[in-house]
Every structure is written in structure tokens, then in C-alpha cells.
Write a structure and sequence with these properties.
two-stranded antiparallel ribbon; 210 residues; elongated; Rossmann fold; 5-stranded parallel β-sheet
Length: 210
């Protein structure tokens, strides 16, 4: 295996297939839904959380066994079945990205251990050698990188187009971004002083735009 190329995908409206019923499958389905993918789940039975997504119209559930035709037109495939190797082979022929759960020899990509705070996503991979190391690192990030980062990114999402319009030179914008990130804005957010944080960013922007 050689899962060394890190990438974050935009799966909006991409046709994705999930098949099988392993213990990780429900989480994989939810993750695809959260990524706004067009998800089809193929399996005779489904966990309650998957059934709820189907009932809500968030996914399409085919209540039957997998068939090769299910791979047609798929961008991404997740499988947890006895025939993972054959599904992977067929997915490769269809030019679809395939992950076979806990079966790295039949995968084109792997899932990292994730820590999320709003728009911030930290993904950790050990190339399949020691998943426990990735889990411990994720736990460390969970302790050290809290909801203040989500709040900061939410504020900066609002400021980003204003900064782009107000500071035309790339070098000046880069200097401003690092000034914001290296300032005490994060500490202000941690203390609950959101208005002061916004005011501090606005002052730095005003100074950079002069």
C-alpha cells in the first residue's frame, strides 16, 4: 500500500456507492452525506441510522445484494463485503475510487483519523502501519484545538472577500493574514470576547488597507 498523497475532495453531487454492513459502514454513509454527495447504499438490511437517512431522503437505499451494475457512473465506492477484491477490481475498471474497509490491499485510498472544528479538518495517516498512533494524535488535537478555531474560521470567512477587495497586492494580503493569525484574536475568542476579536481584525485590515 502507498497511501501517501493527501487530498481533500469536493464530493458535492458526486455519485457515491456504499455496500456492505461492517461496523464502520454507517459512519462512512454519514460522512458522505455531510460532504453533500449523492449516496446510494446497497445492502438487504441497514442500521437504524442508515434507515433514518433513507427515510429522510438523504440517501437512496437499494434493499438487495450488490450487483456489478451498481458501479456504473460512480465517482467513489466504499465496500465492506466478502467479495471486496472483486468489487475493487471492477471499480478500477470503472475508474472509480474504491475503499474496502479494513482491507488495504483492495483500496485506492484510505481514510485518515479526523479531528474537525467547523471548517477546520485535521486528517492523520500512518500509511496503514499503526492506526493507534493516528488515534492518539487525534485525541491530542481534540484536547488542544477546540471550538475557538471553528469560531475564528467563521469570522475569517466573512472577512476574506473584504480583505481581497481592500488589499489588492498579494504580498500585503499574505502579511495581513499572518498578522491576524499570530495576533491575540484566538485568545480573545477563547475568553468569549467575540466582538473584541472582530474589532481587532477590522483594525488590522484598516491599517493594511491604508
Amino acid at each position: 500500500m502507498n497511501f501517501r498523497y493527501p487530498i481533500f475532495l469536493d464530493l458535492t453531487d458526486k455519485k457515491c456507492l456504499v455496500t456492505g454492513a461492517g461496523y464502520e459502514i454507517a459512519a462512512k454513509v454519514r460522512g458522505l452525506v455531510q460532504a453533500r454527495a449523492d449516496v446510494t447504499y446497497v445492502n438487504p438490511n441497514a442500521e437504524e441510522s442508515i434507515q433514518a437517512l433513507a427515510t429522510a431522503g438523504a440517501i437512496h437505499w437499494e434493499r438487495r445484494d450488490f450487483e456489478p451494475r451498481d458501479l456504473a457512473g460512480r465517482f467513489l465506492v466504499i465496500t465492506d463485503r466478502d467479495e471486496n477484491a472483486e468489487i475493487f477490481r471492477m471499480a478500477e475498471e470503472q475508474k472509480a475510487l474504491c475503499n474496502s474497509v479494513d482491507d488495504p490491499g483492495n483500496c485506492r485510498f484510505s481514510f485518515g483519523s479526523l479531528h474537525r472544528q467547523g471548517d477546520l479538518t485535521i486528517a492523520i495517516s500512518t500509511n496503514g502501519q499503526a492506526p493507534a498512533v493516528a488515534v492518539r494524535l487525534r485525541e491530542k488535537f481534540q484536547r488542544e484545538i477546540g471550538p475557538e478555531y471553528a469560531a475564528l474560521l467563521a469570522i475569517l470567512r466573512v472577512f476574506r472577500p473584504i480583505i481581497t477587495a481592500s488589499v489588492p497586492e498579494f504580498a500585503d494580503r499574505r502579511k495581513l493574514w499572518y498578522r491576524i493569525v499570530d495576533s491575540n484574536v484566538l485568545q480573545l475568542i477563547r475568553r468569549g470576547h467575540m466582538e473584541h476579536a472582530v474589532e481587532a481584525i477590522a483594525r488590522m485590515l484598516d491599517e493594511a488597507a491604508r
